[in-house]
Structures are given as structure tokens and as C-alpha cells.
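Incident log, structure service

09:12 report received: a user says their structure output differs between two submissions of the same chain.
09:20 pulled the input from the user's history:
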Amino acid sequence: MTGAPLPIALTMGEPAGIGGELSIKAWYRHRRNLTPFYLLDDPDRITALSEAMGTPIAAGVISEPAEAAAIFPDRLPVLPVSLSAPVVSGQLNAANIAAVQTSIEIAVRHVEDGTAAAMVTNPIHKEALYNAGFAHPGHTEFLAALAGLQSEPVMMLATEALRVATVTRHISLANALKRLSPELIIETVATVHLSLCRDFAVPNPRIAVAALNPHSGEGGAMGLEEAEIILPAIEALQARGILVTGPHPADTLFHEKARAGYDAAVCMYHDQALIPIKTIDFDRAVNITLGLPFIRTSPDHGTALDIAGTGTARESSLVAALALARTISANRQRAGAQ
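09:34 re-ran on a clean worker, output below:
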């Protein structure tokens, strides 16, 4: 593929949160090292926010993604998405929920029609969306619905030191236990394996599967899920030629020496995966949705309403998400050319 790379679509996220601040800082401080991106947001809001932060920037209004690259060195490209009410940092306003969803929907349209290389999503506030009638547990599920997926997408979190994926996501622990099945584990690990090969250019990925119970169930004394659900899935995956091991006790799976033995770990539920990765590298962890027909990454943190508007939010996770989206796009292009 020749010519300039396609730009990356960056969504608004919750406007009362830190997404706007992060977007401004990412462009202002890091644009020389990033693939051009454009922000789906209100240009006047971004200009006013940058002035309030003491980092006045020029927001360049664009009408289509193709215009982003030309102005990116000098202005932050913004494709307008109208807000219904003024934004007050840290204060949720249900009137602006429609704009949050519109921003995501436009980004999906752009990656699906090939005018954007990938989409990166700023954090949304799930409770505010639920109160406004949002029908999905989170970003991942909303994107899957927009893409028309019939299968389950997979949530992966990645840093330089660790990659983790979850078999179940944004559901209660009680419901996660009910959802676990050999079939879901097999589907998750297979999706992770494909991503490691294609998106991360790992030639022979090694995947470690975490146990559910303490001490991997201690031979059944602490639970039967390892023997009845997890191990049959691992054996089926090994029969396919996938380099997968486990079930490994989760309490010994994430220290430095253990991490050297695999390229990604697959965990049974949300916190089993997110606690170790956020402990290891909270500021640079990136959320990647696997199984979509397009590339989507996101910073691995929330809207941080408590510090919104103070200018203290760190943009490192968003910058990492933008950089990883570029890397995955380049790796997929190379894989498709082979």
C-alpha cells in the first residue's frame, strides 16, 4: 500500500469527562509521533476547553476524514458533532447522550467504509448511558451491535509487559460463572490467537489460560470448573494446534517470570484480567476489541469526572491507544499483502 496512511477516528466520549482534555493533550504534545487523527466532537467546545486548560490550540473543522492529514501538523482536525446542551466539566447532562452515541456511530461508519484506518474511543460514562436508555453493557457490546456481529467480541487489554483477554466481560461475577462454558472459552482463545498472529505479528503465539478457582480447584476440593469446563476447552484448542496451556492458578500467573512464558493470558472474568494489568501499567494500558470487522482501541480508564476540567488528566493511555491502532493497522496491511 502506498501513499499517506488513513487517519484514525477519535470519538468524543463523555463530554463532561476527561476525553476532550486528553484529545487536546495528545495532539498538542505528541502529534509529531502519531498518525494523523481527527476528533468527532464540537469544535467550539474543544477550542474553549483548550483555552481553559492554558493550552490554546487551533481546532480545524473538517467535513470528511480525508481532510485530516493536511491540517494535522498545525491544527487539531475536528469533524463536528453537535451537543444539545453546554458542557460543564464533571457534571453529567443527559441531553448530550445522543451526541456521545452519534460520535461512535460516525466513527464506525468511517472505519467500515474505509475512510478511517481505525477508531479510538474516549471513555464513556456507562451509568449516564443506562439512565438514558442505552441498551448495551458497554462500548464493546455497542460496537458489536453496530457491526452486526453474531458472535461474541473479545476484550483485550495490552501494555508492553502484559496482554490479557477476558472470557466474560461487563456482567456480575455470579452471572459470569453461569456464562462460562467450554465453547465460550474456545471461541475466546481462538479469537485471541488470531489477533496475536495478525494484529501483533506474533508468529507462534503462546496463550496461558487462567483457572477460575484458587489453586486451580485443588483437584476438585475448591471447585470443579477447571476439570469440567476449562480443561476440556484447552484440550480442544491444543488439538487444533494452538499453543495453549493451563488452567494456571491466577495468583501466580502475572509475576514477571510467569509473564515471560506466554504472549497473552486469557482470564475467566473481568477483574481477574484488569487488576493485574492496571497494577502493572495503569497509565499506558490499552483496551482492544477483538472480533470486530474493524480496528478499535481505547484508553483503559474511565471518564474521571472528579478531575475533569482541572487539566491534570494524563494522556498517556490515549496516546498508547492511538499508537497501537496505527501498529495494528500496519500489521494487518502487511498480513493481507503476504
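09:41 both user submissions now match this output. Likely a transient worker issue. Closing.
09:42 reviewer note: The radius of gyration is 20 Å. The longest helix spans residues 316-337.
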